Amino acid sequence: MSAPEDLLLELGCEELPAREQMPLQDAATRIIGQLLDAAGLQFGGIHGYVTPRRLALWIKDVSRQSPPQETLRRGPLVARARDAQGRPTAAAEGFARSCGVSLDDLLILETEKGPVLAWREVGAAQDSHALLPEIASKLVTSLPLRKRMHWGDRSDSFLRPVRWLLLRQGSQVLDWNMFGLDAGGESFGHRVHHPQTVQINAPAGYAGSLLQAKVMVDFAGRRAHISGKMAALAGEMAVTPILPEALLDEITGLNEWPVILAGSFAADYLRVPEEALITVMMQHQRYVPLRGQNGRLVPHYLFAANLHSRDTQVVIDGNNRVLRARLADAAFFWDQDRQISLQTRRAALDGVLFQDGLGSIFDKTMRLQELAATLSPQFAVDAGDMYRAAELCKSDLLSGLVGEFPELQGIMGGHYARHDGENNHVATAIAQHYLPSGRDDEIPADAHGQCLAIADKLDTLCGFFAIGKVPTGDRDPFALRRAALGVLRIVLDAGVPLNLDEAVTHTLAAYGGAFARNRTEIRSAVLDFFQDRMRVYFREEGFRADQIAAVLSRQPHEPLDARQRLEALALFQAEHAAADALAVLIKRINNLLRKEVISGDRPIDPQYFMDPVENTLWDYWQALEQPLHAQLAERRYAAALGLLAGLRPAVDQFFDGVMVLAEDPVLRQNRLALLARLQEAFLRIADFSQLQGA
C-alpha cells in the first residue's frame, strides 16, 4: 500500500462576503472530515484557509486507499431454505445464485427474526485518487450557504462565481470537474500584485507559495498582522484605536495583502456627536476611529488598503475624500435636525405605521407612556421622567441623521433631547432604550434606560403575539426572541426584581380595549414564550435542565429570583453529599401526599403523636421554622437549603418509626399534615422531585 500523502483543495472565487468567510471555513473543515471518514480514508490534521478570493483546505496524511469494504447480504430464513423433503427451495437457490456461490457456501446469521442465510462480500480497496474528486464535489454542495448565486447559463451555484479549482494529492493533480472548470495544479496570486497563476507543487507549500504572490492566505495570521500593524501605527501617533473584534474580522475578510495606513479629516467635524462619526467610519467605511489621550475622538483614522502602492499618499487622499463626503452629510443633518424639536416632530409619527393591526408609532408612544410610568417603581426612577421619555423616544425616527444612518436611532434622540432642554434622565432613557439590540450588546447602563427599554420590548412582544405574528421553528422575522432575550438580560444583569406576569398584564392593559376578548390567551402565550427563553438562557449559563425545571415550576415569572434559586440549588447539590438522598426523601413525601387528601388546612396536634420520632421531627421543625421563613423572605436560598438539609435525619427516623398511612384517620391526617408542612418549605425554593436521581 502506498504511503499517505497530503491533500490540497481550493476554490477560487469572486470576492466572498467578509462576514461569511470564517463560518464558511469552519463548515468546510468540519464537512471534509466527515466525508473522508465516510469514505474510509484515514487522515491527519485539517487546516482551513479563506481570503476574499478563495476557500482552501490542506489535509495532512490522507491515505492512498480506502480499506476493503465488507457487505453482509441477508437471504431467506433458514427454516424456509428447504422444503419438507429437505430439497433447497427456489428462494434459497436464487439467493445463492445472486451471491455467485453454492447453497452450501452460505453462512447462517442469527437475527431478531431467527437464523437466516447470509453471505459476506469483501470489496476491493479503492484508490483515493478515484474517490477524492467526488468527495470534493460533495463538500462544495454540502456547504451551508446563506445565499447562492448562479452565473452564466449554468444550473450549479455557489456563494460567489467560481473562477478556478485546485485538487492535488501529493504530486498528483486529480481529475475534478465542477462549475464547468477542470481542476489544475495552480492557484492565483493577488489581483493587482500577482495576477498570474501560482504553481503549487505540494500541498504543504501552498501558504508559502501564495505569500510570495502577495496573498496572506491564513485568516488568523492575516488578522494578527492587521491588529499588530494598527497597534504599532496608533502607538506612533499616541492614540488608541477603537477596534472591536467584529470590525477586525471584517477588515481581515476584505483584504488579501493588507497595508495599514492613516488618514485624516477636518477637525470641524468633531462637533458632530461621536456616535455618528464612529458609525460613519466603522459601519460604512470599515475604518478604525482613534481616541486621543484625553479619551476624545481625534480627526484621524486607520484603514487597511488591499495593496502596496508606490504612492501611498494617493491612496490616503482617496479614502479621505470618500470619508469627507460621508461626514459632510452627517454634519449637515446634525445642523438641520436641531432646528426642529423632538416634541414638534412627534405629531408626524401618527403617519408612520408601526405594524398593521398595532397602529402607528405615535400609538406605540402613547402605550409606552403609560407602561413606562407604571413600571418605574421597579427601577426606582421618577414616573414623570419615564412618561416624558416615552413620549419623545421615537421622534428621532423622523430626523435626517437617523434617516441617513438608521443605526443611530435612539442615540441621536438622546442628543436632540439634551439640545431641546430635556433633563438628563429623559435624554439618557431615550438614548439607551433600544439596548441591547444584539446578543453581544451591552444593556442600558442607566435605570431610566432599562425601564424604557423593557417597556418598548414588552409592547412589541405582546402586540405581535396578539396579532398572531409568533415565531415558528427557525423563523422569527420580527426578532421577538431577541426582544425577549433583551428583557431577560436587562432584568438579570441589572438585578431588577421584575415580575413578568405583572409586567405583561400592564403591557396588555396599555392597549386599552384592543384584544380584550382574548387577552388571557395572549398573556399565557407571552409568558410561555418567556419561560422557553429562560430555559435556554439558564442552560447557556451552565445550569442543568433538571435544576431549571425544578425552579421554574415554582418561580416561572420572576427571572432574577429564579436565577437566585438556581444558584443556591446548584451550590447545594455540588457541596452537600446528602443532596440526592434528600431529594429522594422529598419525592417520597410528594408521593404520599399526592395519594392522600388532607382535610382542609388541618393543624398539627402534638397530642396525637404516638411515637418519639414524631415528637423529634416536630421539635426540630418548630426550632427551624422561624429562621427558615426569615431566610426565605430575604431570598437567602442557600442559607435556607442549609437549614432544610438538617431535617433529613429526623425525617429518616420518622419514616422508619411510624406508619404514615395509619388505619386511624386522625393519626393519618396528623402525620400527613406534618409532612405537608415540610413539603411546603421545600417547594418555597424548588420542586426537588424533578431533580435527576430523585
Descriptive account of the structure:
By secondary structure, this protein is an alpha+beta fold. It is built from 25 helices and 18 strands. Strands 2-3-1-7-8 form a five-stranded antiparallel β-sheet. α14 packs across α15. The chain starts with a strand and ends in an 11-residue tail after the last helix. It is found in: Cytoplasm. It catalyses: tRNA(Gly) + glycine + ATP = glycyl-tRNA(Gly) + AMP + diphosphate. GO terms for molecular function: arginine-tRNA ligase activity; ATP binding; glycine-tRNA ligase activity.
Name the descriptors.
694 residues, alpha+beta, 5 domains, five-stranded antiparallel beta sheet
Briefly summarize what is shown.
The protein has 694 residues and is α+β, with helices and mostly antiparallel strands.
